[in-house]
Specification:
Keywords: DNA-binding. Residues 38-57 bind DNA. InterPro entries: Homeodomain-like_sf (IPR009057), HTH-type_TetR-like_transc_reg (IPR050109), HTH_TetR (IPR001647), KstR2_TetR_C (IPR041490), Tet_transcr_reg_TetR-rel_C_sf (IPR036271). This is TetR family transcriptional regulator. This protein is mostly helical and 211 residues long. The chain has a domain at 60-201: Tetracycline Repressor, domain 2. Helices cover 70% and strands 0% of the residues. Helix 2 crosses helix 5, helix 6 runs parallel beside helix 9 and helix 8 crosses helix 9. The longest helix is centred in the middle third of the chain and has 27 residues, at 126-152. The chain is elongated. Residues 207-211 have low confidence and may be disordered.
Length: 211
């Protein structure tokens, strides 16, 4: 995992000590999992004492919640910006392709953070989990909206719009689980491939849409 890839996700977190703890927690959770990670592990990676952690976060679970919230807010913003940027697009196929490309690229380029964000949700407390679910639903709503527009315009042939939106979202998210910078495909190439897959899932046959 690269330091820059993680740092970029939490660049706006202040004070610096709180950000360093988040970065240490991401590294530890990604390598060992939430339950196997101790607060001492996190503090050590941040170059701080275990006692210093509690000045900024009450519990290890609260750290995970902040990581999850920041990650989900960023990924939702990526989807919103990609769809808003194609508001004048001639067809829904182009809007879907661009949204999927952007969503996939984010999960690949920030794969360490995204892996924790997307696959450690079960460790969140009930209240924190409910807040994250709202953000996850927003991602689904954005994709579902594009699919609904495409069906209404006769561009897509979908019998289950909600199910297809969930399938497309799951496909994109799963990139964080297996992506490696040393792999043979770049984030851009994976985004292109997945955009084509999403269009096929939506019942659209046209390929080669502009990036």
């Amino acid at each position: 995992m690269t330091t820059g890839e993680i740092d970029e996700s939490f660049g706006g977190v202040t004070p610096d000590a709180a950000r360093r703890l988040l970065l240490g927690a991401v590294r530890a959770f990604a390598e060992r999992g939430f339950h196997a990670t101790t607060t001492r592990d996190i503090a050590g990676r941040a170059g701080m004492s275990p006692a210093a952690l509690y000045i900024h976060y009450k519990t290890k679970e609260e750290l995970l919640f902040h990581i999850s919230r920041v990650g989900h807010e960023r990924s939702v913003a990526v989807l919103e910006e990609s769809v808003a940027g194609t508001a004048g697009a001639a067809d829904s196929a182009e809007r879907l392709a661009r949204a999927v490309r952007a969503f996939v690229r984010w999960h690949a380029e920030h794969h360490t953070t995204a892996r924790v964000v997307q696959y450690e949700l079960a460790a969140l407390g009930e209240e924190h989990y409910a807040q994250i679910v709202v953000l996850r639903r927003r991602s689904e709503e954005i994709l579902r909206g594009v699919l609904e527009e495409g069906v209404a315009a006769g561009e897509f042939d979908i019998s289950d719009i909600r199910g297809t939106a969930l399938a497309v979202m799951s496909l994109c998210i799963d990139v964080a689980r297996w992506f490696s910078p040393e792999g043979r495909r770049t984030p851009e190439e994976i985004g292109e491939l997945y955009a084509d897959l999403a269009l096929r899932m939506a019942g659209h046959r046209t390929a080669g849409l502009p990036a």
